[in-house]
Automatic annotation (TrEMBL):
Segments forming domain Guanylate kinase-like: 20-198
HAMAP family xrefs: Guanylate_kinase (MF_00328)
Family note: Belongs to the guanylate kinase family.
UniProt name for this protein: Guanylate kinase
Keywords, in A-Z order: ATP-binding, Cytoplasm, Kinase, Nucleotide-binding, Transferase
Taxonomic lineage: Bacteria, Bacillati, Cyanobacteriota, Cyanophyceae, Nostocales
A cellular-component GO term for this protein: cytosol
Gene that encodes it: gmk
Source organism of the structure: Brasilonema sennae CENA114
Length: 199
């Protein structure tokens, strides 16, 4: 696998002035972080959502440039080589990454920027930007998580098993994050995220 690109130099107050804020939202696949994010943005349009780049295929209803920027593996690797991603990781056979300049411009302008990213990417951001607020979304249980993933009817049994193995590893890392929120009751989880981000 390619080497991770990160920006430890020059990634402090010069790029992240105190007027803006970087917020990381992560959790295992199927935990509901995407649905929580959409509801959060509907309630608080002043928040800036950073659209990630991915090599995976669009799911039904997803729009290029709104949900993700969908690119080929070659295009993604060119972005990595050019240093144009703030963070990136490979997950379930696909690459995911965050465009650097779009995020930094929003933070410089004083916006609260929310990244919905995978664990590996969240760790990269935390290393480069320790002042970022990090939130981990937990499922009520592994059995409930499996039920949610199966309910999407988008993955084979093999892919589901792989996602669940990955999920357990990610859940084991939840203590690395500033705040852990269990998505048992949707409204309660959303209110907890609001309180953390807007306080």
């Amino acid at each position: 696998m390619m080497q991770v690109i990160s920006t430890k130099s020059g990634a402090t107050t010069k790029e992240c002035p105190p007027t803006g804020k970087l917020i990381i939202l992560t959790g295992p696949s199927g935990v509901g972080k995407g649905t929580l994010m959409r509801s959060l943005l509907q309630r608080h349009p002043q928040l800036h959502y950073s659209v990630s780049v991915t090599t995976r295929s669009p799911r039904p209803g997803e729009t290029n440039g709104k949900d993700y920027y969908f690119v080929s593996r070659r295009e993604f690797e060119e972005l990595v080589a050019a240093g144009e991603l703030l963070e990136w990781a490979e997950f379930a056979g696909n690459y995911y990454g965050t465009p650097r300049e779009a995020v930094m411009n929003q933070i410089r302008s004083g916006k609260r920027v929310v990244l919905e990213i995978e664990l590996k990417g969240a760790r990269q951001i935390h290393t480069c930007y320790p002042s970022a607020l990090s939130i981990f979304i937990l499922p009520p249980s592994m059995s409930e998580l499996e039920k949610r993933i199966r309910g999407r009817a988008q993955d084979s049994d093999e892919a589901i098993a792989r996602r669940l193995r990955c999920a357990q590893e990610e859940i084991n890392a939840a203590d690395e994050f500033d705040i852990q929120i269990v998505n048992d009751d949707f409204e309660s989880a959303l209110n907890s995220i609001e309180a953390a981000i807007l306080s």
